[in-house]
Every structure is written in C-alpha cells, then in structure tokens.
Amino acid sequence: MQALILEEGQKTMTYKEVETLSVGANEVLVKVRAGALNHRDVYITQGLYPGVRTPIILGSDGAGVVEKVGANVDSSWLRKSVIMNPSIGWDESMKVQPKNYRILGMPDNGTFADYVKIDSKQLAPMPKHLSFEQAAALPLGGLTAYRALVTKTQAQAGEKALISGIGGGVALFAFQFAVALGLDVYVTSGSDEKIAKAIAMGAKGGANYKAENWHKSLKEQAGGFDVIIDSAGGDGFKYFLDLANPAGRIAFYGGTRGSFKVNPQKMFWKQLSLFGSTMGNDQEFAAMTQLVEDKKILPVVDSIWDMKDGNEAFAHMDAGKQFGKIVLKNPD
C-alpha cells in the first residue's frame, strides 16, 4: 500500500510503498478514503511533540470503508462506511485519560495511507449526511470540542458563549456545536475575514484580538459570557475573567500563546470555574457523533489535497490561514 511516512531525522514525509497490513483477531482493516490534519501532526514533524518515534504514519482523523475484519469481529462491519475514534484506551468510566492512553497516529500508525488497521471498538458508523472528506474532518477536533463545551462547561441553550481562535478545527466544532445547542455565540480571531465567515455561519458577533481593547468591544456587544472556550492561553487569557458572567465557566484545550496568569480575586468573587480539557472518552465520542447526526452538522473543510501532496498540505496548515479542516484524500 502507499503511505506518507515520516522517517527518522526528517521534517517532511515521504510518499512511498509500504508493507500491506494484516489484522489481529479484534482488529479491522479500513480502506482510507480521506484523512484530516491536526496541529498535532505538524508539531510531530517539527519535533515539538513528546515521545516521537519513527518511522511513523501520521494521521489521527480518517473515514473509509471496512475491507477486512479479524476473527473476533462482527462481520456486519464489512463494507460499512466508518469513522474512527482516535482516542484509544479511555473508557467512559474514567474521569481522566489513563497512563496507557494513546492517540491514533502516534505511537500507532495512522490514517495517512491507503489502509489503516485499528481495534474494532474504535469504529463508529459514518454519519449518513457527510461525505468522506467531511467525515474525516470530524473525529479528533469534534471530540475535543465536545468534551470542553458539553462535558466540562455544561453549556445550555440560551446562554452566551465565546469561542476564541475561530478558524481552527476544534474552535469551529465548538462554535457549531454551541449554535446547534441553542447558545448565542461570539468569536475571536486575528483575522477579520474569519470573523465575518463565522458571523455568516450564525455567530452573533466577534472581535479581532489583535485590535486594541478587543475585550471591551466584546463586552459592549454581548455584556458578558456564561461559557468561554479557549485554545491559546497567553497574556490575553486574563481578559476572559473580565468577560465572564458571574458563575461563568471557562475551558481551555490548548496553549499556543503560552502560559497565563489569573487574578484569584476575580475568580472567587465571581464564582468562576476554570477547566483544562483534552480529547475525550468513548462515551463522549459516541455522543458527539450522535449530535452531528441529529443536528445534521457539516464539518467545515478548508481545502482537500491528494494524499501524495501531504507535505504541501502541512505547509498550508503551518501558515495558519485555513478556515476549517485540511483534508487529504486517496484515489477512489
């Protein structure tokens, strides 16, 4: 089969022939129709991710068709269109990921190939209203957004939500889920164009965090927020305490702008809750895909590239201009 391989000491991948996969008793072989990029993949190629091992096939997100099942797997999965839960080893009974937790695409070979093998319990039927490219965009970003928004902050219809960094995959899913659940949603971005796109998709307003007093603009627009979902951290995080309504909930799933400080007086006097969140468990993955199915949510796809052009797609992500997920497709 053909695959994108990250070799030892390399920062770009090689598209080449690799050994055909065999499946274990509890595994399935999925013919990958499309895979999607995450910043995690880019960080791995840049040596900025812990525990990198090579050679490795990257890719945590994917959609395809089951072509082979192991001896212990229900044969009804054969020829089914599926997506794969990239969050491996996190049972729904656990409040936090276990020590043996791992993510598809590192250390296990991932979806940037003709085929991927995976334990059958990681499979979910592909939502019927999605194309393979749209479905491939969903798993990691959708799961991360769902846990932060629904499990952690317990966002409710009628509340006001602020989603930072709109345009990124997780932020867009958090935005779409919040709108679907009946919240009034506002956004931030460093791009006025991305804010305008979010407003066209249902956002009530937004602010460019590069502008002076951006937080005051949001205060004027919304008054305050019950739920805030952030991916960046950094110096601007302190303004979320001002923007949060009393009893507000703030969840963050990333720290691309670095560490942050919080004012404890504002935290305790306003009775604020601050949640760290990452990925999600099996139950949350099932609930997330059901929400997408029920609300007919369409993942936002920025661009679609041929699998063999993976390095160009990675460069596009690293440039940070995308709005939505970057997808790699295999030939039909």
CATH hierarchy: architecture of the largest domain: Alpha-Beta Complex
Strand content: 25-35%
Rg over CA atoms, rounded to whole Å, is: 20 Å
Helix content: 25-40%
Description:
The chain is an alpha/beta fold and about 325 residues long. The protein has 2 domains: about 1-140 and about 300-330, Quinone Oxidoreductase, Chain A, domain 1 (Alpha-Beta Complex), CATH 3.90.180; about 145-275, NAD(P)-binding Rossmann-like Domain (Rossmann fold), CATH 3.40.50. Helices cover about 30% and strands about 25% of the residues. The protein is built from 10 helices and 17 strands. It has helices at about 40-45, 130-135, 140-150, 170-180, 190-200, 215-220, 240-245, 265-270, 280-295, 310-320, and strands spanning about 1-5, 15, 25-35, 60-70, 80-85, 85-90, 100-105, 115-120, 125, 160-165, 185-190, 205-210, 225-230, 245-250, 275, 300-305, 325-330. The strands form 4 sheets. Strands 3, 4, 5, 8, 9, 16 and 17 form a 7-stranded mixed beta sheet that branches. A 6-stranded parallel beta sheet has the order 12-11-10-13-14-15, sandwiched between helices. The longest helix is centred in the middle third of the chain and has 14 residues, at about 140-150. The model has no long low-confidence stretch (mean pLDDT about 95).
